[in-house]
Amino acid sequence: MRKKLIIPILAIIFFVGLCASTMAGGHGHKAPKKVGILLVAFGSSEPSAQVSFENIDKQTRAAYPGIPIRWAYTSHIIRKKLAKQGKHLESPEVALAKMQDEGFTHVAVQSLHTIGGAEYHDLRRTVGAFKMMGEFQRVILGYPLLAAQEDMQRAVNAILKSIPSDRRKTEAVVLMGHGTHHPSNAFYAALMFQLQLKDPNIFLGTVEGYPEVDLIKELLLEKKIKKAYLMPFMSVAGDHAKNDMAGDEDDSWKSILTQAGIQCVPILKGTAEYDDFVAIWVDHIRGPLGHFE
Ligand code: CO
User: How far is the CA of 265 from the centre of ligand 1 (A)?
Assistant: First the structure.
């Protein structure tokens, strides 16, 4: 008998809690609807990366006119570095808390990550915590660049378009992804497979995951490729692109491939500098926004 009572009581407590939180406007009135977008990137302290963020900001504003946009960086190290330069960027937690304070009721949090890796899943947890607190009527996270098969197809097309027009088909294009220990690392090899269906001399390696540069080098040598365009497959041309990809150190991709007799042409442009990539992220905001109507 007692057990039977517990569930309705819990339901009442939950319901009362829910009412209190959705009436966060106070005095029993539901807060007026205020929709916002929070763009969340890993972040970069490199000046060369800012052009990517500016492009995303510009395109988001153009796609969703009238919706206020806020930014957050997930990397604590980057935020600390920027603070020393007098630039104050917030963590997603602080940015969301400030948006609560500003009276936002519906927030679309958009991941600007390339894959749904560790950073993305950390962000999911943060968004989940805000959801549970119930201070927003709705707070929803949008997918990173690569999620659905349609994204893969769009990314393939964006990559094909971003290749310099003077590159010959016998020359390789070697993309540098970030790579991760996270299971989502498999997206890189999956994307390379789909790229190679269109153009067999496009390769995609990673700095911190699979495929590694040594494997890419073997594949290039097997095909007797003499020249390769090196391009970052990261939203910004930051530290990895400048040093790990195009640097003069012995272990940079440029050095490793040059040592193997392959002429390298590095291109220091992040994916977010190209509108076709940015359009994928920007379109993903439509997912959360669609639930706010
Ligand atoms: Co890194």
Answer: 22
Judgement on whether residues 245 and 161 belong to the same structural domain of the protein = yes
pLDDT for res 275: 97
Active site residues: 178
Counting Cα atoms < 13 Å in the Cβ hemisphere of 252 gives 19
CA distance 231 to 270: 8
What separation in Å is there between the alpha carbon of 281 and the centre of ligand 1?
20
Instruction: Give the pLDDT confidence of 156-203 residue by residue, as tens digits.
Output: 999 999 999 999 999 999 999 999 999 999 999 999 999 999 999 999
Model pLDDT for residues 97-154, shown as the tens digit of each residue: 999 999 999 999 999 999 999 999 999 999 999 999 998 999 999 999 999 999 999 9
Rounded Cα gap, residues 186 and 202, in angstroms: 17
In terms of Cα–Cα distance, which of 103, 44, 31 is closest to 71? 44
C-alpha 68/C-alpha 259 separation (Å) is 50
Residues 180 and 166 in one domain: yes
Q: Looking at the structure, do residues 8 and 142 belong to the same domain, yes or no?
A: yes
Whichever domain contains 18, its CATH number is 3.40.50.1400
Domain count, the chain: 2
Q: 161 and 139 in one domain?
A: no
The pTM of this model reads 0.89
